[in-house]
Design brief:
Layout: H1 5-9, E1 40-44, H2 50-66, E2 71-74, H3 85-94, E3 101-105, H4 108-115, H5 123-128, H6 137-142, E4 144-145, E5 148-149, E6 151-158, E7 161-164, H7 166-171, H8 183-194, E8 199-202, H9 206-231, H10 239-252, H11 264-272, E9 276-280, H12 285-291, E10 301-304, E11 311-320, H13 328-339, H14 341-351, H15 367-378, E12 380-383, H16 393-407, H17 413-425
Parallel strand pairs: 1-2, 1-3, 8-9, 11-12
Antiparallel strand pairs: 3-11, 4-5, 6-11, 7-9, 7-10
Helix pairs in contact: 2-13, 2-14, 9-10, 9-16, 16-17
The structure holds beta-D-galactopyranose.
Length: about 425
Amino acid sequence: MRRIAAVAGIAAASLVLAACSGGSDKAAGGDASGSGGGDEVEVFTWWAQGSEKAGLDALVDVFGQQHGDVKFVNGAVAGGAGSAAKDLLQSRLQAGDPPDTFQAHAGKELTDYINAAQLEDISSLYDEFKLRDAFPQDLVDLLTVDGKIYSIPSNIHRSNVVWANPAVLEEAGVDPAAVPADIDAWLADLEKVKATGKTPLSVATTWTQVNLLETVLMADLGAEAYNGLWDGSTDWKGAEVTAALEDFQKLMSYTNADRDGLDWPEATQMVIDGNAAYNVMGDWAVAAFEEQDKARGTDFVDFPVPGSDSMFGFLADSFTLPVGAPHPDGAKAWLETVGSLEGQTAFNKAKGSIPARTDAKPSDFSEYQQSAIEAYGKDSIVPSLAHGAATPVAVLNAISDATSKFTTGASDLAAYQQDLAKAVAGS
Ligand code: GAL
């Protein structure tokens, strides 16, 4: 049983961005709702470097095999979680200068683009490419508004994973095989690592701190109350949120001081290199370990953030056909590859995610990925905040600003909690 019902329930439209998709001066190649421009495709992502680029490259290889006549134009903009790409994309969409296709997260983030009339309905491609039964229905529901489907999913990632270096743990007297039961037990282990002089918990710039925050909220509140944060049934000003924010504050006190100058690959690398014991990161991190020939169980261990082990922090990337795309036929060719079994298998093997297609063979994937497939089948699926599933982009931006203010010392815990409550209430 795949359960994304919790996410689907909160995927209802709540924010309409100011839409402005007219005035394209690039429409000469064709009409997005029609055809044309099949000679190339500009693909806009934030998979610009390292293991993320390796994932994209694997997909581009399959694209070359399936559509050798269409030139792939890489529109990737560096910055994990789309931290730079999403703003740039929004400016391009507002200026009527869309790429031919772009990466968007299933859930509230995609709903933003749909409500702003920036995306074409691509339901007919689901028939043409025979995708109607390829994906779990509840995932398709997250890509659908009023019966129209607006994107094709490429993968599913998990956000609430701890990556750890066993040698660093052993040096600190922490048993790498023993997973802490909750955040309190984990804090005790972090204290032991601190005594060795190594960084207990590596983290990077703001979005990775928000990724950490969401996992602490999952761990301390549990699935139901965590989901309630996004549908209004959990009070952001309440005592259980205060307690979770206190845990977040304690965890942040064990992190590297240079965090705001780093992106996720550098923070994860600290664990790979044995300079830090733990890193909390979505499971694209596994691709960084594997790319460097690190073996699961010996060179690294992974476990759900303590206290969140029955939850799967859900996010999915998907690809779209923007209104006014200059090369709609090129985009359709790309979307066909994204949805294909060959495309999903090659891409996800390299990316660390699990395929969105239900007919992909688990045995084609790594041991970690097989464990993620299993967890996805049995855990409570809860929406990721940092990766577009839980909130519209504007709310995530406000939460990110509040978090940065707090972790740079410009606000105290009480003010942080108020800022968060305001950020969500403003949606
Ligand atoms: C997420 C995205 C993942 C991965 C990650 C780090 O938002 O869904 O595929 O790229 O950012 O950049």
